[in-house]
Amino acid sequence: MDLRQLRYFLALNEHRSFVRAADAMGITQPAFSRSIQGLEHEFGCQLVDRGSKDLHPTPEGRVVLQHALALVRGASNLTNEINQMTKLDAGELQFGCGPALSEKLVPDALLHFMQRYPHIHTRLRVDNWESLSRSLGRDEIEFFIADVRQFESDPSLQIRLLRPRSGLFFCRPGHPLLEKESQSTNDLFDYPLAAARLPAGIHKVLANLSGKTQLDQHIECEHLPLLLKLVRSSNTIAMSTQEAMNDYLHEGEFVQLHLRNLPADLDSLKAHCGIVSRAGYRLSPAANAMIELLVKLDQEADQSKAA
After folding, report:
1. Nearest to 109 by CA among 290, 302, 284, 301
2. Which of 134, 226, 284, 291 is 20 to 30 Å from the Cα of 141, by its Cα?
């Protein structure tokens, strides 16, 4: 018995025809039949009811099918895992990012990564820092990029810092608030507030600015295009990062609010970005390559901004 025979038996169960299954596996029908017969000889029983029109598996055949599927999948997973550990011409990369970095840094890094490693299958999840942390703990992703303030004291995590991103408030052109000669934070909280899930530190700052013990965030949305659509169609005021909104502001699609009693350098309203992975965990070559790309592009953007 070998994996090839088990794959043939799975194909026979799928196609219910020796001819079609042999064709799907790329071998002649006589060779395919001999392989199935060899498997039956190995187990000492008949695996297929050849008297039935649809070649139903026998009771013994159903048991073999169950284990064959697990063995074939396990062999495939083992190959993929070894490839991920040793190569960059095969395998998968799974990581996540928060909405603040899904507009510029991560797409730019993905383009470079695809050009360098076209055979790596990449899965990116965009979500809030809390959900991404749970995914990391369940081994669904190897790392994520988000605001790291919630994780800085966790010894089970490793953090590689990126440059912070400035936050801003914005609204649609024609918003009633823009009719005032100047706006303050008191005006800000007269309207619905929308943003991605905010770290506790930002929540606290905004609550203090609103004069309340608890911030009333009307809309929590991790999908920036949807959030922008809501802002376009209502008097909702939204919060995001300067980096994510630069192009939209430049094109005049939205207007940044300059609140007179909000310090321009207020560090608490910045996104403290970083790359989060598990401490002591060996990342795949693909994950390491993506992380180095992210750091490199982030540094280049910082140098370009300084120049």
Report:
1. 290
2. 226
Pull the structure tokens for residue 203.
């929540």
Tally the residues of the chain: 307
Rounded to two decimals, what is the model's pTM? 0.65
Residues 127 and 132: their CA atoms lie apart, in Å, by 6
The SS3 call for residue 157 is strand
C-alpha–C-alpha distance, residues 105 and 157, integer Å:
22
Report helix, strand or coil for 54: coil
Q: Is 148 helix (H, G, I), strand (E, B) or coil?
A: coil
Grouping H, G, I as helix, E, B as strand and the rest as coil, residue 153 is coil
Distance CA 277, CA 260 (A): 39
Say which residues have a Cβ less than 8 Å from residue 272's Cβ, sequence separation at least 6.
147, 148, 149, 161, 164, 199
d(CA 101, CA 126) in angstroms, rounded, equals: 9
**Ramachandran class of 216: left when φ > 0, alpha when ψ lies in -120 to 50, beta otherwise:** beta
Structure token pair of residue 157: 């995590």
Beta strands in 18-140 (DSSP E): 92-97, 121-126
The tens digit of pLDDT for each residue in 146-161 reads: 989 889 889 999 999 9
In 71-149, beta strands by DSSP E: 92-97, 121-126, 143-147
**190 Cβ contact partners less than 8 Å away, ≥ 6 residues apart:** 177
